[in-house]
Each structure stands twice: as C-alpha cells, then as structure tokens.
Give the backbone structure.
Amino acid sequence: MQPGSAHGPARPAFGGVRFGDRLARGILVAPSILSADFARLADDARASLAAGGDLLHVDVMDGHFVPNLSMGPAVCGSLHRAMPDACLDVHLMVTDPAAYIEPFAKAGAAHVTFHIEVVPDPLPLVDRIHALGMSAGLAINPDTPAEAIVPFLDRIELALVMSVHPGFSGQKFIAQVLPKTRALRDAGPAGLRVQMDGGVAPDSAPSCRAHGCDVIVAASAIYGRPDYATAIAALRAG
Ligand code: DX5
Ligand code: ZN
C-alpha cells in the first residue's frame, strides 16, 4: 500500500526504520539466529551482520504450534540493546501471536511475521503491528496454499513461505513450495518482500530467487559454516 492511503498512516517498508539504505539491495539475506551459539549469541549475530547479513531472523517457538521451544522477547531485547541498528525480523511460530506483539515491539523488533494457520482473520493483528511502528508479515506452512494469504498481500510488507515444516533448523528444503512463492510474487503488489525460510542453502537459493523470493533466511547454511561471508555471498548470488 502507499503511504497515507485509506488503510492508515504511512509506515515503513519492511524494516525501513532501522534498516536504512540496505533496503536498496535487491536480495536480502537474513541469518536465523536459531543456529547461532546461544552462549555467545551477540558475537555470532554481530559477525553474521558484519559478514554481509542484512537482518537478523528471530525464530520464536512456543512448543505448541511447533514441537520446539526457542526464544522470546527477552532475547530480542538483549540483541536490540547490543545492536540497536540491527533489523530484528521476528518470526512467531506460536499458537497465540496476539499475545506477543506488544512485548516484541517493546523489545525493539522492527518486523513481526505470524502464521495464517492460527489467525485466519489476520488484518486486526496486522493493524496492531503497524500501529506499533513495525512492518508485518504473514507466513504459510508447506501444506498451506498461497491463496490463504493472497487476499491480504496489499496490507502487509512480507509474505513468508516455509520450505520446511517449522520447528527446527537443519532440515531438508521442500522444493514443492516453489510454485507458491511464484504465485505470491505475481499476486502481490510491487515492493512486497517474499521470504523463503527453511533448508535454504547455496544449492537451493538460486531456485528460490528464480521463483520471486527476495529475502532468504538461513540458519545452518550460515552459522554452521566456518566462513559467514562466503556463505552469505553464496546465498545472495551463488
Ligand atoms: C524453522 C525456522 C527457520 C530455521 C531455518 O522452523 O523458522 O527460520 O531457523 O533453519 P535452516 O536454515 O537451518 O533450515
Ligand atoms: Zn523462521
């Protein structure tokens, strides 16, 4: 949507407030800190941004929507205090995302994505995210059709296509989701960011980009590699 349109006041493009001129970059790479070393999280996060990562993807799991627990607003807040300029891209894999919008806004998140599977009427939550100064995203699991979020694409900044069943890093990329990525790119407005999340590695990144994805999330393909800069460059352009 355009700034100041009928849907509400102007708001930043994806991560715009804290992301500055990096928005000019076509393909963004989002290191997912789920595979960082939690004992030295700030060091790993800083190193991945210094190596060319554009934003930090923060995977939030509640042990209910997905069979794992990860991190919450306190971790986000610590990262924000340690790296106030980093764009914190929060991916809520939780059954009740409405309960966590304000805590993550207070914790310095720039962007929040939640899943359509748990909020079939997402616009009130999208509006709350925007009212708190963040950009908003909608995510679909591998078994959810693209059509589930198509009606809302002109009200959000980012569409997230899960290319693994959410819950864990290090899983195998599900290539069958690629047509959904293309469908969302074609159906969405210019400027919509389309994010791929799960199992993306240098061998799968080119097909993600070819299908219209312009934000690549990667955990193990970055933090599991000895040289973050080489890994990030390979995801962006390899
Ligand atoms: C999975 C998470 C992903 C995950 C990606 O549930 O949403 O962001 O961290 O990990 P890799 O890149 O290792 O598949
Ligand atoms: Zn994620």
The radius of gyration is 16 Å. The longest strand covers residues 56-61. The chain has one domain: 14-237.
